[in-house]
Every structure is written in C-alpha cells, then in structure tokens.
Amino acid sequence: MTLAPLLNAPLAIQIHAVAALMLVPLTAVQFWRRKGGVHHRALGWAWVVLMAIAAVSSFWIHSIRLVGSFSPIHILSIITIVGLFGAIRARRAGNIAEHRRTMMMITAGWFVAGAFAFLPGRVMFQMVAGG
C-alpha cells in the first residue's frame, strides 16, 4: 500500500478521498453509538459536512466521462446533496424515521460509490495495489 497515487492526484481527488476516508470511522461510530443526544448530534454534523465535501468535490473529478465530462456517479452526488438537506429537514421536523431512512440511503450510496473507487486504474485501487 502506498499514498503516492493520492499525493500525486489532482487537489479535487485528494479532498474527495480524504473526506470519504474520514467518513469510514465516523460512520461506524454513528451506527454503533446510542442515537440522540449531544454526541450523536455533533458527530452527525461532522458527518454531514464531510459527506457534503465528498459529494461537492466529485464535480471536479472527471476520470470517467459518459455524458460530456460527467458520469453516473455525479447523479449520486446530486442525490446525496439533496438527501442531506432532506435528512436535516426531517430531523428538525421531528420525523426521526424519515431522518434515519434518508441517512441510511445516503450511506448505502456512499458504499456503492466507494466500491467504484477501487476499480482498476482509479487512485484508491492504485493505493491499495501499491502503485
């Protein structure tokens, strides 16, 4: 394993990857800890910010071009951003079930996107495969 592919990647990919990698332990903590309370809320806001950074930064990544300079993964980014607003709105309205469902869907989409990051030729694949 080597960090060289990430360190040599464009800034947008570096920002995207760091945000996504920071989401891994944070997501685990959010799922395993007790829900509600000040800790869940603080970690939840950190999660939302990191997810938004990962989603927004994806619009400057164009390594897979299917429609112009965009790929289907960019649709997932749009869905993620809309979902984040929806999850926040649901929580503020006291609709915990909708909040939970939306956050789970965003997380599932993030796992799907993460799987694509490990395809041969992609930066994460190169990091794990050693260059």
Give your account of this protein's structure.
With 131 residues, the chain is mostly helical. Helix content is 74%, strand content 0%. The protein contains 6 helices and no strands. The chain has helices at residues 4-7, 11-32, 37-57, 72-92, 96-117, 123-129. The radius of gyration is 16 Å and the shape is globular. The termini are close together. The model has no long low-confidence stretch (mean pLDDT 90).
* Percent in helix: over 70%
Q: What is the number of helical segments per DSSP (H or I, 4+ residues)? A: 6
- Which stretches are low in confidence, meaning pLDDT under 50 for 5 or more residues running? none
Element order: H for helix, E for strand: HHHHHH
- What overall geometry do the principal axes of the alpha carbons give? globular
Key traits:
single chain, 131 residues, mainly alpha, 6 helices, globular
Put the structure in a nutshell.
By secondary structure, this protein is mainly α. It contains 6 helices and no strands.
Describe the secondary-structure layout.
Layout: H1 4-7, H2 11-32, H3 37-57, H4 72-92, H5 96-117, H6 123-129
Helix pairs in contact: 2-3, 3-4, 4-5
